[in-house]
Amino acid sequence: MFKKILFIIASEGFQPIEYGDAKKVLEAAGHQVVAVSDMAGKAIAKDGSAVEVDLIVSELNARRDLSPALSSAEEREHNYDGLFFIGGPGALEHLDNEDSYKLLREWQKTGKPYGAICISPRILAKAGVLQNKKATGWDSDGELARIFADNGVEYVRQPVVVDGNVVTGNGPSAAREWGEKIISN
User: Fold this and answer.
1) pTM of the model
2) What is the pLDDT of residues 124-167, one digit of tens each?
3) Under the phi-then-psi rule, with left for phi > 0, alpha for psi from -120 to 50, and beta for the rest, what region is 45?
4) Domain 4-184 has CATH 3.40.50.880
């Protein structure tokens, strides 16, 4: 079944391997990836490559766009099947904010799959959408266990962790597997 998956990327400094490898896996399975960022235009990856932004986080209307029961064909066109945050050095600077938290909290109510990779599971934890869940993420700074514990998340040191409808990955080397788990969720 064809699915439309939202990939949330920082307008500057997103991780291109996590975005690109996971996107290739999803598209090879027949799914569409929609690029969402904190600013319109082009998002610039940490390696200088660019991705055209389809939607902006602050303008994504969770109640209309994310609702599973939409009435018209036009509204169904905006019905998404998954929401996933991509990591990279710009993720915390550009996406660790109330706009993202609100989007995540509204999304969690839909019961549809969501998650993050690399440093971005920290954003989900702070939004409160990983409480009582097992998750993984980037931890080269040694802070992830504390951040997860402070937010009621069980840290599992594995490349990819699936807990119910939540899929988390620990970084670029896990991007393909993370994409595969998104498909199977």
Assistant:
1) 0.92
2) 999 999 999 999 999 999 999 999 999 999 999 999 999 999 99
3) beta
4) yes
